[in-house]
Amino acid sequence: MADVGAWGAWQVEPSAFTKTVVESMQKLYPEQLADRTWDNVGLLVGNSETDAGKKEPRVLVTNDLTFQVAVDAIGQSVSVIVSYHPFIFSGLKSITNNDPQQATLLHLAKAGIAVYSPHTAVDAAPEGLNTWLADIVAGPHPNERSVAIPCSTAPPSHSPAGYGAIGRFENGVAVSLREIILRLAKKLGGLRYVMVASPVGSDIKTTNVKSFGVCAGSGYDVLKNADVDVLVMGETSHHSALRAIQQGRTLIQVFHSNSERAYLKDILKPKLEEQLKQSVPDAEVVLSEYDKDPFTIYDVSEL
Questions:
Q1: 227-239 pLDDT per residue, tens
Q2: Of 17, 49, 145, 296, which has the maximum CB count within 10 A?
Q3: What's the number of CA atoms in the CB half-sphere (13 Å) around residue 121?
Q4: What is the per-residue DSSP string for 78-101?
């Protein structure tokens, strides 16, 4: 290499398509909305123009970036993965195949696939995940809406924003809890089971509620101070459920990623594709058949 002059890493050209994907995501869900006190959003793995040039202008959207999803992305000739959950949360002191997360990272880097994560920026956006989840709970019933915890760093283009959503049905209307549960199950992908913690002596078939709080994922800390009749979230702890029912509230949990995945499919995917096509007409956004909740509920009598 002595006859080529100075050379080094500065000569690696970042992928133009990856830059377009990042800019498109930031227009839809600005990173200022994310809770950076703990979250890790943004471009987590980059790729080069040389890498991207070998692939289609294709993005795979996933809730969780597992090894199986990574292999699927390679098989679909994807250039960028938008993973709702960051698959890198804390600093890495080594990258080896002895850890499943790191093995996935190595596999993607070798394939030249970039990874972007929006996470809580999607949660907090005015037309984001929690607004969508609150709309499902409310159904056709008019309600007054607010955020559980305001986002102080939201840009003017995406204000007001915040984490979690609070709804109060207008004119003191009381809505059937059974109706809400059935609507959640249908809209979140046809769930057969949901977990419900109810105050002692109550009956979910006859209970009516006038207010609600929602927070996708592990949502209890966001909603614990909400003065509402029913709390809806992906998951919470045993003790949080006990606290809720002792306060006279019903708590519904649908499993962590079940509270998020349908939004990615029905809302984020088409919005991102529409945004990308403005500058890359043949851009495509796809999903992975391997992105699913890790838990399966079994009836032991059928084993």
A1: 999 999 999 999 9
A2: 17
A3: 24
A4: -SEEEESS-S--S--S---TTSHH
